[in-house]
Design goal:
alpha+beta; Thrombin, subunit H; six-stranded antiparallel barrel
Length: 340
């Protein structure tokens, strides 16, 4: 019998051909697996039919974070090539990053457009803190963002196994993305076209939260017991409209795991902005969110454990086995799962 506290219980075998390496067109033609907890039924559909499955009385929470071009290619003063991935801003000038290439404190990293970064702190988890400069002038994070649009690359997940291209600039971004800061897309949001988004919003009360997805979302759970996993934290903010929906007694559907964690963090902390590090799993299930729209996630990931917090471990495996048999597309550019 599977133990929901053991990381090994969240493993599954995925045929490599089911990893979606490119987006589908149009984006709302992705497949949709609908799971109803009331009777444990599974229905196979297409995403543009989602409205036919949503409860009539249901508030919807979207994450309006916007992905930045967080991957930079450059070189050290010695000439050695490096790759830098922005993780998150710690303050106006200090940015936590991951760097491919050996560096030490005070190493200078050179990029295009006379931009360079100085390494100021090294951490045991492999991340580094840097500060960016234009010539010799320090650059604030908000000043860096438009520069990244010119010299940066879309930070595609490593499991896609390819470089970003012009298509990713359009497709690895939700149609309602607004606030810059994420280094990974809230992927459940990617299925909405402008037209479908407008139609769903016209039929349901809705609101936005912002959670800037960090690269920690891809960090595998390495501890044998899931509760020993150090959950990453990410900046979040809850809008006035979302605050009112949370305090209402209407059932809530969260578009994505990021919106879910934001709402559930507020329910536990009473904080409307700050740093969220909530880990949802079968022993820490949602308290306020009733329904979830999400994609199909990596084995042994915190995202898969979040799905299990809604439906239980055994049913999670049954759903995923069915998706594999039916050849659903998995991960960021893959198909969708609606849990009712």
């Amino acid at each position: 019998m599977l133990d929901p506290l053991l990381t090994s219980s969240y493993d599954y075998l995925l045929p490599e051909e089911l990893i979606a390496t490119h987006p589908i067109h149009p984006r709302d033609h992705a497949r949709l697996l609908v799971y109803n907890r009331a009777d444990r039924s599974i229905v196979h559909s297409r995403f543009d039919a989602i409205e036919t499955f949503l409860p009539e009385k249901c508030g919807i929470i979207f994450n309006d974070t916007k992905v930045i071009k967080a991957r930079l290619y450059g070189h050290k003063s010695s000439g050695g090539a490096i790759e830098l991935l922005i993780n998150r801003a710690l303050d106006a000038y200090t940015i936590n990053v991951y760097i491919k290439g050996r560096v030490k404190t005070d190493t200078i990293l050179h990029f295009a457009e006379h931009i360079h970064a100085r390494v100021i702190t090294l951490y045991d988890d492999g991340s580094r803190d840097v500060r960016f400069f234009h010539h010799d002038t320090p650059i604030r994070f908000e000043e860096l963002l438009p520069i990244l649009d010119t010299i940066g690359h879309i930070p595609l997940p490593p499991y896609l196994g390819r470089e970003d291209d012009a298509e990713d600039e359009r497709e690895y971004q939700s149609v309602f993305a607004r606030h810059e800061g994420a280094v990974a897309a809230p992927t459940a949001s990617l299925h909405f076209t402008d037209e479908l988004f407008d139609a769903v919003c016209a039929a349901h009360p809705h609101a936005f939260v912002t959670l800037h997805v960090g690269s920690g979302t891809f960090k595998p759970v390495e501890a044998a017991v899931i509760t020993d996993h150090p959950m990453h934290s990410e900046y979040f903010a809850i809008s006035d409209a979302a605050y009112e929906l949370i305090r209402n007694d209407i059932p809530l559907l969260c578009i994505g795991t990021t919106s879910t964690r934001t709402i559930e963090y507020y329910v536990r902390s009473n904080q409307r902005s700050g740093e969220a590090n909530l880990f949802l799993h079968p022993h820490n299930p949602p308290l306020r969110v009733n329904h979830l729209l999400t994609n199909f996630h990596l084995p042994q990931s915190t995202l898969l454990m979040l799905v299990a917090s809604f439906v239980g471990l055994e049913e999670t495996h049954r759903i995923y086995n069915e998706a594999i048999v039916q050849k659903y597309r998995f991960f960021s550019y893959g198909d969708a799962l609606l849990i009712l």
